[in-house]
Amino acid sequence: MRKTSIAALACVALASPALAADTIKIGLGVPMTGDYAPYSEWQGARCMADMINAKGGVNGMKIEVLIQDSGADTQTAISLAQKFLDEGAVMLGTIPFSDTMIPVAQVAQGYGVSIFQPQSTQVEMHAGIVDNFFTGVSPDPFTATAAANHALSLGVKNVVLMTSDEGGSWSARTPLWFGDVVEAGGGKVLSKLNFSFGTSDWSPQIAEMKALGEQIDAVYISSIMPDIAVLIRQMRSAGIEAYVVGSDGFDDPSLDAIGTDDPAILDKVFFATLAPSHADSAVVRFIAECKEMGIDVPGLFPATGADTVKAVAWAVEQSGSTDPATLAETLRNADSIPVMSVDAISFKETRTYAQRTIPVIGFEGGKRVLISNEIPANTPTDWN
Hints:
Blueprint: H1 6-15, E1 23-30, H2 42-54, E2 62-69, H3 74-86, E3 91-93, H4 98-109, E4 114-117, E5 133-135, H5 140-153, E6 158-163, H6 169-172, H7 174-184, E7 188-194, H8 203-211, E8 218-221, H9 227-237, E9 243-246, H10 253-257, E10 269-272, H11 282-292, H12 300-303, H13 305-319, H14 324-332, E11 337-338, E12 344-345, E13 358-364, E14 367-374
Helix pairs in contact: 2-13, 3-4, 5-7, 13-14
């Protein structure tokens, strides 16, 4: 996993604009270190803010992104949210899991401030527990369905589901939704196996797969890197040639790296994700532009912070206000909100999550290819 040094954190602090009354402040208490760091959005947010500020800002105001490391600790994230709120933040981001997002949203509610989480897919956030929440993507049942539809198109019948409670519904229920769609399409769930984040030895699960005595066409898992890469390698070494299918947790450059010596290892890997991230996508172009500016945005998840900043900037421009409640209502009532990762999103019908297409990414010769990109019509409805 990537680590962010103390020196790098200091650079972030030095690069931030000075506090001023004429700034639009967005507070990000996000994982800059630890296992979840590759999935944090701060680099993309910082880059998009610099792009907008270089063009004069919004309505004469500069965007200031307040960034501090929460690690994976909920209490730290809550404390940082309180700090940013006291400094005048009009929107927050935090650790993208419901056990943190919910208490942070509850703290923010007293200030009229919302959370805009550009990569949270967990269904818990759309259950009405809090109403000051936006996510720039669609929930996990949509990604599960998009992946299952492609699997069925490949002739997949027999699947194994790997689940974990450690990532909330993202890792526990997304595989089950995948299985539901496969079974509705005539397939069969052979087994459901448990796993833990940080697994480096998948031999117990692999032994259970081999003990099934049936051909496995696909294994589905919603997990994080580098665990997924290790699973793929160990499955292939054990002679299991099933498709390895997953969700947005696969969308990290370190997955692509396992095909450096043997691109064929990725031939039967695909995943549904947050936004197109193949070579000619808007995300890849944005990452290249940031690199020219001297800002390293290492993959899709870090890039998604650009959507937060762009959406907030649009709401300020449209409403002529920096009042947090006004910004939230502006976002919620808009037919179309321009963002970086896709042309536009909308919350008008869904209220808390973005309506947008779900891309499925595969590999050819070790390189990403866009397989499909649509809103699935057969998404399970048992989550809302």
